[in-house]
Design brief:
single chain; elongated; 3-stranded antiparallel beta sheet; 213 residues; 47% helix; 7 strands; alpha+beta; 4-stranded antiparallel beta sheet; 8 helices
Length: 213
């Protein structure tokens, strides 16, 4: 944020009441157009909100501005560190791989739209669509045994997986298994091979019923 924009925001944050553009310009000794420019940017970032003043005089009331109470929505984020902390904590628990799979299964209930699939092919399509939405860049493949595989060309947690593959990959496995359970699919992902190729992980699909399509 520019120094002048920070001055505008700091003024609003410490003011006892909402201020008009004219009041802001006067207090900061800047042109009203300059104040308006920075206020527009602050509103777009969600840090300032505007409202009309009470109608105590004839004519259109001026817009009044106040700071939004809360953390800066445009501030820096570090979700990679959070993911690393959580992965490390999970890895230190008893049976970390089993717990990671369970965590993935549980999360699937939040991201997989409920509803039974009518066929194996439909379930494969649903799974690849979900993985695509989550950033895995999936591709359908056929294995040498004739069963389907899904290749994953991207890992949304690549940096964390590099250090904590022992829990990150099982979370992904559990996520896929959980989604297929939500859809009551006739197959599951029985294995996930991390980095089967330098740019590819492979999810191996296995039938859970005698039915096929």
């Amino acid at each position: 944020m520019s120094g002048r924009r920070e001055d505008v925001f700091a003024l609003l944050r410490t003011a006892d009441a909402a201020l008009s553009i004219a009041e802001i310009a006067e207090r900061l000794d800047i042109h009203p157009n300059t104040a308006r420019f920075h206020l527009d940017a602050l509103m777009q970032s969600g840090r300032v909100q505007a409202g009309e003043a009470d109608r105590t005089k004839p004519g259109r009331p001026p817009l009044m501005f106040r700071a939004v109470v809360g953390m800066d929505p445009g501030g820096p984020r570090d979700y990679r560190t959070l993911a690393a902390v959580l992965a490390d904590a999970l890895a230190r628990r008893p049976q970390p791989e089993r717990q990671a799979v369970a965590a993935g299964r549980a999360w699937a209930r939040h991201v997989a739209e409920p509803g039974r699939t009518r066929s194996r092919r439909q379930a494969v399509d649903q799974l690849t669509n979900l993985l695509s939405d989550l950033g895995f860049a999936p591709e359908k493949r056929s294995s040498t045994t004739g069963l389907d595989e899904i290749g994953l060309r991207n890992c949304p947690f690549l940096e964390v997986a590099g250090e904590r593959r022992d829990v990150v990959c099982p979370v992904h496995l559990g996520l896929m298994q959980g989604a297929l359970e939500v859809w009551d699919a006739p197959f599951t992902v029985d294995e996930l091979t991390p980095f089967a190729e330098p740019d590819l992980c492979v999810a191996h699909l296995a039938s859970t019923t005698a039915a096929s399509s």
